[in-house]
Amino acid sequence: MTCIRFALLGSGFIGQVHAASLARHERTVLAMVADADPER
After folding, report:
1. What is the spatial distance between Cα 22 and Cα 24, in angstroms, rounded to a whole number?
2. DSSP states of 1-40 as a string?
3. What are the boundaries of each domain within the chain?
4. Is the CB of residue 7 less than 8 Å from the CB of residue 31?
C-alpha cells in the first residue's frame, strides 16, 4: 500500500492540529516540518 508523505508548513497551534489529524491515517507520513520561527 502506498503511503502519502506530507510537509507541514507552520508549527503553531493550527499546524499541530493538522499534524495530529493526518497522523490518525495509516497511509500518511510526516516528512518535513518548517516554520518561520526557529524557536518552534
Report:
1. 5
2. -PPEEEEEE--SHHHHHHHHHHHTSTTEEEEEEE-SSTT-
3. 4-34
4. yes
Per the CB < 8 A criterion, the answer to whether 4 and 29 are in contact is yes
Strands 4-9 and 28-34: parallel
Position 40, amino acid = R
Tens-binned pLDDT, residue by residue, of the chain (40 aa): 799 999 999 989 999 999 999 999 999 999 999 999 888 7
Rounded to two decimals, the pTM is 0.70
Side chain identity at residue 10, one-letter code: G
